[in-house]
Amino acid sequence: MNFPNDVKYTKTHEWVRFEDETTARIGITDYAQDQLGDLVFVNLPAEGDQLVCGDAFADVESVKAVSDVNAPVSGTVDEVNEALLDAPEMMNEAPYDAWFVLVSGITDTDELMEAEEYEAYIETL
Amino acid sequence: MKLIFEKSIPGRHTDFLPALDVPEVSEDFARRIEPLRLPELSEVQIDRHYTELAGRTRGVNGGFYPLGSCTMKYNPALNERVASLPGFTDIHPLQDDADVQGCLEVMKKTEEYLAEITGMDAVSLQPAAGAHGEFTGLLLIRAYHRSRGDEGRTKIIVPDSAHGTNPASAVMAGFEVVNIPSDAQGYVDLAALKAAVGPDTAGLMLTNPNTVGLFDPNIEEITRIVHEAGGLNYYDGANLNAVMGIVRPGDMGFDVVHVNLHKTFSTPHGGGGPGSGPSGCKAFLAPFLPGLRVTDEDGTLHSGKADNSIGDMRSFRGNFLVIVKALAYILSIGREGVKETAENAVLNANYMMRRLSDVFDMAYDSTCMHEFVMTLERLKDETGVSALDFAKALTDCGIHPPTMYFPLIVHEALMVEPTETEPKETLDAAVEIFRKVMEEAYEKPEEMHLKPLTTVIRRPDEVKAARKPVVRYDYPGSV
Amino acid sequence: MGIYVPNTPEEQLAMLHACGFSDFDELFSGIPDGLRLDKALNIPEGSSELEVRRAVEALAGKNHVYRTVLRGAGSYRHYIPAIVSEIVSKEEFRTAYTPYQAEISQGVLQSIFEFQTEICELTGMAAANASVYDGATAAAEAAQMCRERKRTQVLVSATVDPKILSVIRTYASGTGSEILTVPEKDGVTDEEALRGMLGEGSACFILQQPNFFGNFEEADRLGEITHAAGAKFVMSVNPIALALMKTPGECSADVAVGEGEPLGLPMGFGGPYLGFMAADEKMMRKLPGRIVGETEDLDGKRCYVLTLQAREQHIRREKAGSNICSNEALCALTAAVYLAAMGPQGLRQAAESSMAKAHYLKERLAEAGLKPAYERPFFHEFVTECGDEETAVKIEKALAREDILGGLRLGNGRVLWCATEMNTREELDKAVSIVREVCAS
After folding, report:
1. What is the spatial distance between Cα C152 and Cα C299, in angstroms, rounded to a whole number?
2. Distance of CA C264 to CAs B259, B417, C83, C272, Å?
3. Number of Cβ pairs closer than 8 Å across A and C?
4. Are C405 and C373 contacting, i.e. CB atoms less than 8 angstroms apart?
5. According to the CATH classification, is domain B78-333 in 3.30.470.10?
6. In this complex, do B315 and C56 lie within 8 Å of one another by their Cβ atoms?
7. CB burial of residue A109 (10 Å; 0-12, 13-18, 19+)
C-alpha cells in the first residue's frame, strides 16, 4: 500500500494535493481503490459546482457496486479530469495521479491527515 | 458463434409481401441518408441462427431453476395456447367497448380474482412489471395524502433488506427514502420503525415473507405503527407465492399491493420480460387508480377513467396477453389450487433446507417460507471458495445457480427457491449435487474458481465490458 | 385442478414428516393464528384443461376481430412472417430468466445485443438499451434522462400522441418536472411557438415523427432550434417509417425512442408491446434499464454480458435514474427476428406499401366527400374532416357493418385513418364506397 507524503488524507479515503494554499487536486487513495476493486466508471461533478466538506461530490462504479466519494474540503470545482471517463483503470493503476477535480477557494481543511497519520488509521481498520 | 450480421450476404431475402396494387407515391419528405443496414439472410439461415441461440439459453424446462426471489415455476402450455387465440391477438386496443366484451371480461375477472387473493378492493392491470406496479402504488399513496391536503408526508420507509426497486420507485414517485435496519432475523426492527415514523411519513414498503424468506410475525404491529402515524402500508407482492390462500396482505394491514403475474401466476419470464405488475388497493384509494377502469352495467362491460385518476402508467390497458395467461392459470388451479400452490412452495423449500442443513449453514435457523438463504461465509474463510464459485460449479451439474449475494444483509449468500412445481426427486437430486459440490470445494478449492467448464463460454470479463462498453456490432469499415 | 403440483398427497405428507411437521397447518405455524384465512377464497374451483380452454375460448369469441383494420393511433396491424412466432415460442427464450448468469444465457444475451444493434441502425444512434415497457414509457424515461439540476422543464409538441403525453405527465408528477405543450399549427409543431417557449430551464423538447396525425415534421429544423436553447432533442419515431425517413441520428437527436409493436408484435388489445430507446454516445450511461455489452471470457472468446449495471436500481437503489427491472425482452427478440426476416428490402417494402396504401385511401376518400384536414407530406396515417361528429359516427358504423374497423374519431368530425401493407386495394375501394354512400345520404 502506497501513502505518498505530498498529499493529505481523509478518513473516508480521499486524498488532497495542494497546489497553493487554497487550490488543490482531489482523488481517492490506494487503500480505497484496493477495497473497491476494479473501477469501471466515475461520475464527476461539473465545473463551477460547489463542494461541501463531507458531502458526496462524485461516485465511482465497480461492476457490481457504486460508492460515493466525499468532499475532503469545501471549495469550487475549477476543472474536472475527463480523462478518467475514457480510462477509469487509471484510478486502480495510479490512484495518486488519477485526480478527479481541481478545487479552488478551499476552506474546511481541519480534518485532513498527514500520510503517517492516515497509515496508522488504516492499520486500525 | 457468429452474430447474425456476420452471416448476412447482400441480396439474400425471403418475399413476405405481395407487389404493390396501388400507385407508388413520390412524396416530398426528408428521407434517410445512410442506407439501412439489416441482416440479409434466407429463412433457413434465420431459423438455424435462432435455434443455435436457443441452445445457448437455459429455460425452465432445461432443468432445476432454484433462483431465489424470482419464483421460476413451470409455465403451463395451456396459457400460451389461449393467449395466442386470434380473438385476443388481433384486437385493436382502441376498438369500442361493444366489440371487446371478451377482453374486458378477461380484465374484470382477473381484477376480481387478484383482489380476492390479496384482500384488496380494486385492482388495476395497467402496470407492465413489478417495479411499474410499485411506482403506481406509490403514486396512489401520494395522491391520497395530497387529496387530504396532507402535503407534508414526503418520506417512504424501506427496510435495508428490500429489493432495489423499492427505494428507486419511491424516488420516482417524488418521495425521500428512509432506510431502516432489519434485526438479526431479518425482521423489521420495531424500535427503529417507531423512531422513523412521524408526521412526514407517507408510507412503508414491505415484502412479507421478507427478502430472506421469513414471515415477519410482528406484521400487525408494524402496519399499526405506520397507520397510527398517518402513513399507508405498501405490500411488495414479490413473495406472494408463499402465502396466497393462507394469509392476505389486506388482512395484514396493507393498503396497496402489487403482484407479479410472471412470478406467482405462472406467466413466463421471457428472458427478462414481458411481465405484468397489477396494482391492488383498498376502496379508499380506488378513485386514484390509473388507466381505464372496467365496470359492469346490466351485464354489459364499460370502460372509464376513475374520478381522481393519477393518469396513465403506459399506453392502453396493460400487458393484456400476459393477463390472459394469468387468468387461465387461476381458472385452472382454482381456490383450492391457490392454497395448495403456496403450501407446496413452502414445503419444497423447507424439505430442501432440512436436507441440506447438516452440511450448509443456514442464515436463519427457523422454518422458512418459499425460499431459504444459506451463507457460505465459512467455506469462503476456510477455502477461499466464494458463493459465486459455488454457484458457477452448480451450473456444470445442470442446475441454474441460486440467487447470489442477495439479500445484501447476509454475507456470501445463496438464496434457493425451488417452487411448488418441482417433484420430490428433483429436490433429492439437487440436494445430492449441492452436497457433492461442497465436498469438491473442500477437496480442490482452487479448481472452483475456474468453474463452469461445461458451458459454451467460461467466465466473462465484466470489468472489460463496463470500462470500454461495446453495446452494438460495428459493420466493417464503419467509424 | 392443482395439476401443476407434481407431488402426490402421500408424498407431500412424507416430506412434511421428514421436516418434522405433522401437517401443513404446522408448517405455517409461524404466521399468527388470527391472520390466517379462515375461509375459502371467493374464486372459482379449479377446472380441467379442457374446461379452462373452452371458457377462455368463449371469452375470445366475444371479441370482434375485424377483417379490415383502418385504425392505427399507436397500435398498427402489419404482416407478421410465420417464422417470427415460430422462433419466439421456443421454450428457452420464452421461459428463461433475465440473463444475469452469462455462461448459460449467451443465447438471450446475443439476441439482445443484435436487437440493440438493429435499433441503432434504424435510428442512426450510437447505443440502445434492451427495451422498456412501451413507446409511451420510453418517451417518459427519455424526459427523465434529459433532466438536469437547472433544467427540469419538459416541452412536448401538441402533435405527440395524447396517450404518450399522458404517460409523460404521470411520470413527471413524481419528480415535479413541469410539462409544457408546444402548440400545433396546420398539423405540425408551431416552430415559432417552440422558439419562444424554450429557455434556460428547458431540459428537452419531445417530438413525434411522423406525428400523431401522420404528418412528417421538419425534425432537423426543430432539433436545431432546441439545441440552440441548450436543451436536448428527443424524437419518438415509428420504426417502420425509419426504413424511409431521415433518422433521429441524422436529425441530431440526443435520444430516440419509439413503440416497437409494428415490428412483429400483434395488436393484442394493447400489450405486451416494446419500448425502444437509443441515445448518442454522451447520453449512453443515462439510458435506463438493461444493456448488453460485448466482452471476452477467460479463454479470450467473444461473449456477451449485462453491462453498465451500476446505473440500475439493484445497485444504485434510491439514486438510480429509473426503477425499471423487468423489461420486454421477449418482445425485443420478436422485433429482432422480424427485422432479420424482413431484411432492409422487406422493411422498405412494408414502409413503402403502407405509405402508398394510405395515400391511395386519402385520395379516394377525398373523392368520396371526406375532406383531408391537412395537405402536407404524411406517412401511413392522415386526418379527414366531415364537419360534424354525427356523420363520423355514421361512417364508423356503416364500415363496421361490413367488417371494417374505421379510423379513430378525434372529435368534431375529425377522423384519423391508417393503412398498412395488410390492406388490399379491393378492401380500400370497398371502404371508400361505403363512405361515399354515407356522405351522399
Report:
1. 47
2. 28, 35, 10, 12
3. 18
4. no
5. no
6. no
7. middle
pLDDT at B161: 84
What is the band of B478 on the pLDDT scale with cuts at 50, 70, 90? low
Q: What is the pLDDT of residue B405?
A: 87
Q: Is residue A26 part of a domain?
A: yes
What's the predicted TM-score (pTM) here?
0.97
Q: What's the CATH architecture for B335-464?
A: Alpha-Beta Complex (3.90)
Residue at C273: amino acid letter? Y
Q: Which of chain C's residues have a Cβ under 8 Å away from the Cβ of B172?
A: 171, 174-175, 322-323
Using DSSP, state whether B319 is helix, strand or coil.
coil
Strands (E), C14-101: 68-69
**Closest chain A residue to B466, measured at CA:** A40
Look at residue B479 in the predicted model and tell me its pLDDT: 52
Chain A positions touching C285 (Cβ under 8 A) are 41
Using CA atoms, how far apart are residues B136 and B320, in angstroms rounded to an integer? 17
Task: Report residue C2's pLDDT band, with 50, 70 and 90 as the boundaries.
Answer: low
Name which of B473, B312, B55, B137 is nearest C87 in CA terms: B55
- So what's the pLDDT on residue A6? 96
pLDDT in tens, B300-325: 999 999 999 999 999 999 999 999 99
CATH number, domain at C312? 3.40.640.10
Chain B residues with CB under 8 Å of A63 CB are: 462-463, 466
Of C283, C302, C337, which residue is a domain's last? C337
Give the pLDDT confidence of B167-213 residue by residue, as tens digits. 999 999 999 999 999 888 889 999 999 999 999 999 999 999 998 88
Give chains near C: 3+ CB pairs under 8 A.
A, B
Q: Residues with Cβ < 8 Å from C137, sequence gap 6 or more? A: B128, B132, B313, B314, C167, C171, C275
Give tens-digit pLDDT for B123-146.
999 999 999 999 999 999 999 999
Residue C50 within a domain: no
Residue A59 is part of which domain span?
8-109
Quick one: cell of C208? 413525434
Mean pLDDT of all residues belonging to chain C: 96
Q: Which of C243, C239, C152 is nearest to C202 (CA)?
A: C152
Q: Could B463 and A61 be called an inter-chain contact, meaning their C-beta atoms sit closer than 8 Å?
A: no
The pLDDT value given to residue C3:
75
The answer to whether residue C263 scores a pLDDT higher than 80 is yes
Within a domain: C10: no
Picking from B213, B189, B164, the residue whose alpha carbon sits closest to that of residue B414 is B213
Model pLDDT for residues C349-372, shown as the tens digit of each residue: 999 999 999 999 999 999 999 999
Cell numbers found for residue B104:
374486458
Chain A contact set for B466 (CB, 8 A)? 40-41, 61, 63
Closest by Cα among B23, B40, B438 to C342: B40
Contact between A104 and A50 (Cβ < 8 Å): no
